[in-house]
Amino acid sequence: MSATLPVSIADVEESARRLAGVAHRTPLLRSHTLDALAGRRVLLKPENFQKTGSFKIRGAFAALSRLTPEERARGVITYSSGNHGQALAYAARRLECRAIVVMPENASPAKVDAARAYGADVRFKGTTSEARGAEARRLVAEHGYTLVPPFDDPRIVAGQGTIALEILEDAPDVSAILAPVGGGGLIAGIALAAKSRKPSVRVFGVEPTGADALHRSLAEHRLVKIATTDTIADGLRPQAPGQLNFEIASRHLDGVLRVDDDAILRAMRFLLERMKILVEPSGAAALAAVLEHRDADLGDPVAVVLSGGNVEMERLAKLL
After folding, report:
1. 29: number of Cβ within 10 Å
2. Do 87 and 155 touch, CB atoms closer than 8 A?
3. Do the strands 255-259 and 146-147 form a parallel or antiparallel pair, or are they unpaired?
4. 274/246 Cα distance (integer angstroms)
5. pLDDT tens-digit profile of 42-92?
6. Whole-angstrom distance, CA of residue 309 vs CA of residue 268
7. Using one digit for the tens of pLDDT, what is the confidence trace for 153-169?
8. I want to staple 284 with a disulfide (CB 3.0 to 4.6 A). Which of 189, 193, 267, 269 is the partner?
9. b vs e for 71-95, b when ≥16 Cβ sit within 10 Å of the residue's Cβ?
10. 61, 122 in Cβ contact below 8 A?
């Protein structure tokens, strides 16, 4: 593990300046019914209300805005199950450059359509993050595109960390922050920024029990790749966290809470029925952890990141 991380609180603060006027500053929402169910005050950070429907625009725009004109002129490429691809396409359109997105063959049709609507050239490869990452790198070698990874990149991490800055500004008394974990860019950025601004705040990642690579990696003190993932949360299926994200989590994360798919569905249903908030399964994972782990040492109040809301209506009906 390197002595110095390639991303700092100064990078997160710079990302916040770059995102001003681009990303929404999402509010913190409360529900007395939710507080009673959780046994503590819960502050919801609804990134499903964000541009492109998820937190991903923060990292995507922060990364693209740091590219040189020559790098943007070559066209940018990424690999994504959907939300990062949409965000990259939107950011590329704002910065007037071409975007190519490699998505899984079983990608959500809603996410594919949205990426195309933002102007992306969508390609398909395999069903794993590893497969589409390999295809993206092959296309980089063949065409000279500029690769913008979905999560294991200092610029991406810095952009995602702006969520923590907003939470701490709006709720300086917050005791803990919970966010879902896929490749780990979101939780890495939040943990780094939150601990830099308020060392006493606790930060927890949340993973599905069928896709708990970060939990295993932290337990074994090494990067662990799991053979297969099994969860309804398509944004939380990477087989391993990014190397940089694992390093940041090892230093700053207080733990990882795991939830099963049934708990995620219950959280989705609560948000939709009681608060009229639509989230995708990945977006409900952190709230599921608060509701399922009532005895966890989280303190009061806790902030919960609802990471995204991109789910097509047909799938939502089947899920619920």
Report:
1. 17
2. no
3. unpaired
4. 36
5. 999 999 999 999 999 999 999 999 999 999 999 999 999 889 999 999 999
6. 10
7. 999 999 999 999 999 99
8. 267
9. bbebbbbbbbbbbbbbbbbbbbeee
10. no
Decide: residue 195, CB within 10 A, 0-12 exposed, 13-18 middle, 19+ buried: buried
Cα–Cα distance measured from residue 70 to residue 257, given in angstroms and rounded to the nearest whole number: 42
For the stretch 136-143, contacts whose Cβ atoms lie closer than 8 Å and that sit 24 or more positions apart, written own/partner, are: 136/77, 136/78, 136/79, 136/100, 136/102, 139/77, 139/100, 139/102, 140/77, 143/75
Domains of the chain: 9-51+155-319 (3.40.50.1100), 68-147 (3.40.50.1100)
User: What 3-state DSSP class applies to 113?
Assistant: helix
CA 6/CA 192 separation, integer angstroms? 12
Tokens 């595109």 sit on residue: 145
> What amino acid positions are annotated as catalytic residues?
56, 81
